[in-house]
Design goal:
Elements (H helix, E strand, L loop, with lengths): L3 E6 L6 E8 L7 E7 L3 E8 L11 H4 L35 E5 L26 H15 L3 E5 L9 H11 L3 E6 L2 H5 L3 H8 L3 E5 L5 H8 L5 H14 L2 E8 L8 H9 L5 E8 L18 H11 L20 E9 L4 E4 L2 H8 L14 H16 L9 H12 L4 E7 L9 H5 L3 E4 L5 E3 H5 L11
Helix pairs in contact: 2-3, 3-5, 5-7
Length: 462
C-alpha cells in the first residue's frame, strides 16, 4: 500500500510528529502506524491486524470511510497551537458531540489494575460540588445539543447525590441519560436502580469483562464480583433500565471469553440490549510498558467473535461507523430469537442507515456528511437503549409494554470501540471523535485526549 500519512504524538514527550500507516512487512495484510520523534526515536503500533480466518474481515483499505467534516457550530477554543493542543472543541474539529461524558467523581469502590481514569485508592481529588456538575451539564447541552450524556467517574454511584445529578441531566433534555458504573452498588442495594430510574436515568453502561472469576481478578483486582453484577442486571430490568454490558479486552486475559459473554448477554433479554467491547488502551493506570502492551485491533476482535460464536455471528454482519472515524469502531445489529439462543442480522438497509448512512439529498456522489452519521447514531442508540416514560405506576409493566410495542424486546447490538493511547494516536481519528468529556471550564475534550498519558504518566490534559 502507499503509506497513508497523518500526524501523531511522541509517546515520551507528547510533541506532535508526522506518522504514516504502512504494511509491515510490505507484502502483509497487516497495517501499523509508524512515527519517529527526533529526540526519542522510532515507534510503531498495530493498526489493522488480519489474523488467518475464513472468511477474512475487510482489509484496511476496504474498511476506511471518508466523511465530509461537521465543524462545531460554537467552538469553545481557538486554534492556536494546532491539534491536539487546542481542544475545547476548536474550529478544526471535524465532528460534533454524539456522547458527552460528565465525570462527577475520581473516587471508586474498586482499584482496578487497568483504569483509564486512574480512579480508586487514597489520593482521589474531592468530588466537584453539584453546582459545578450542573454547570458542566448546561455547557454540554449548549455545545452538544440533544446528544447523549453519560454520567461517569470514577464510580458515580459512590456519590449519594447521584439521583439528583441524574435529575439535573434529565431536565436539560438530553436524548439519553446513561450511568457508567461497575454495578456494585446497583447489585448490592435493593431499590437503588429504581431511585435512578425515577430520577430520569434511561440506561446503564455496566462494566462486565467476561464470565470467569479469573478475568475479573486480573482486570478488576477482585474475583468475587460476578454475582453482584448479575444482581445489578436483575434490579435494572425490574426498574425499567436498559443495560449494555461493557467488556475491556486484554489479549491473553479475557479475549477468549467474548463468545461466552455474548451468549450470557443473550439470556438476559430484554434488559441487556447489547455487548460492547473495548480493547485496552494504555492510558491512566495500566500494568505494562506502553510499547509492549497486549494490543487487539478491530479485525482481530471480529475474527475472535466469529470463531467463538459461529452459530450466532458472521463476518459480513459487521459494519464501520457512520459517526466516528472508521478505525475507531464496528457494530452489528440483530434480532434475538426465542429464548436468546440464536440471532438474525437486521436487514442490510437498516444497518446501512445506522452505520454507513447515505449522504444528504443532492450530495449522492460525495462522501457522507459526519453530521448526518452522528444524527443517525444518536437516533438509533436512543431508540434501542432508552427506557420508557414514567406514565404508569408499575415500572416493570411499563417497560415490558414499551419494548414489546417497539419490537425492542428482541433487538440486540454487538459493537466495539478502539480507544487511542500515546502510541497509537492518530490526529485524523481525534478530529473525527464524537465522544467528548465535559470540562468544568466549559470545554469539551475528545475522550482519548482527556485521558491521554505519556509513557511516564504525564497527562496531555491535566
Amino acid at each position: 500500500m502507499t503509506p497513508l500519512h497523518t500526524q501523531s504524538l511522541c509517546p515520551v514527550c507528547l510533541r506532535r510528529i508526522d506518522a504514516a500507516y504502512e504494511r509491515l512487512p510490505t507484502n502483509s495484510p497487516n497495517v501499523v502506524l509508524r512515527k519517529i520523534c527526533p529526540e526519542h526515536g522510532a515507534f510503531h503500533a498495530p493498526a489493522w491486524t488480519m489474523p488467518p480466518a475464513a472468511p477474512a474481515p475487510a482489509t484496511f483499505e476496504e474498511w476506511r470511510r471518508d466523511k465530509c467534516p461537521s465543524y462545531p457550530a460554537a467552538p469553545q477554543t481557538t486554534a492556536k497551537c494546532g491539534c491536539p493542543f487546542d481542544c475545547g472543541l476548536c474550529p478544526s474539529h471535524a465532528q460534533h458531540t454524539c456522547t458527552g461524558l460528565v465525570e462527577i467523581t475520581r473516587r471508586c469502590n474498586l482499584a482496578c489494575p487497568l483504569c483509564y481514569a486512574e480512579s480508586g485508592g487514597s489520593g482521589a481529588a474531592p468530588d466537584p460540588p453539584i453546582a459545578e456538575v450542573a454547570l458542566m451539564l448546561t455547557n454540554l447541552k449548549k455545545a452538544g445539543g440533544t446528544c447523549h450524556v453519560q454520567i461517569s467517574g470514577g464510580e458515580p454511584t459512590v456519590r449519594e447525590d447521584l439521583p439528583a445529578i441524574v435529575s439535573l441531566a434529565r431536565r436539560q433534555g438530553f436524548s439519553l441519560v446513561q450511568v457508567n458504573t461497575n454495578g456494585l452498588r446497583l447489585g448490592g442495594e435493593v431499590g437503588y436502580a429504581e431511585r435512578l430510574r425515577q430520577a430520569g436515568a434511561d440506561s446503564v453502561y455496566l462494566q462486565y469483562d467476561g464470565v470467569s472469576a479469573a478475568a475479573f481478578a486480573a482486570l478488576r483486582g477482585r474475583s468475587d464480583i460476578i454475582e453482584g453484577k448479575n444482581k445489578a442486571i436483575q434490579f435494572c430490568g425490574a426498574a425499567g433500565l436498559g443495560v449494555v454490558l461493557v467488556s475491556t479486552l486484554v489479549c491473553g486475559v479475557n479475549d477468549g471469553e467474548m463468545g461466552a459473554l455474548l451468549r450470557f448477554a443473550l439470556t438476559q433479554g430484554p434488559t441487556v440490549r447489547g455487548v460492547h467491547f473495548q480493547p485496552a488502551a494504555s492510558f491512566g493506570r495500566f500494568p505494562w510498558h506502553i510499547e509492549s502492551a497486549p494490543r487487539l485491533t478491530l479485525p482481530e476482535i471480529m475474527v475472535k467473535l466469529v470463531e467463538q460464536t459461529p452459530d450466532l455471528i458472521q463476518m459480513e454482519d459487521f459494519h464501520p461507523p457512520g459517526c466516528e472515524h472508521a478505525l475507531c469502531s464496528f457494530s452489528a445489529v440483530y434480532t434475538r430469537n426465542g429464548a436468546g439462543n440464536s440471532l438474525t442480522p437486521s436487514g442490510r438497509n437498516e444497518q446501512d442507515k445506522i452505520c454507513c448512512p447515505p449522504p444528504p439529498p443532492g450530495l449522492s456522489d460525495a462522501p457522507p456528511h459526519a453530521a448526518h452519521g452522528a444524527r443517525k447514531a444518536i437516533h438509533f442508540t436512543t431508540r434501542h437503549w432508552k427506557a420508557p416514560k414514567l406514565d404508569t405506576p408499575d415500572l416493570k409493566d411499563d417497560f415490558a409494554a414499551f419494548v414489546s410495542k417497539a419490537g425492542l424486546e428482541r433487538r440486540f447490538t454487538v459493537s466495539a470501540m478502539a480507544f487511542q493511547d500515546a502510541l497509537s494516536l492518530d490526529l485524523a481519528r481525534i478530529r473525527g471523535c464524537c465522544i467528548h468529556v465535559a470540562r468544568p471550564d466549559g470545554r469539551l475534550v475528545p475522550f482519548c485526549l482527556h485521558n491521554l498519558t505519556s509513557r511516564d504518566g504525564v497527562r496531555l490534559y491535566a
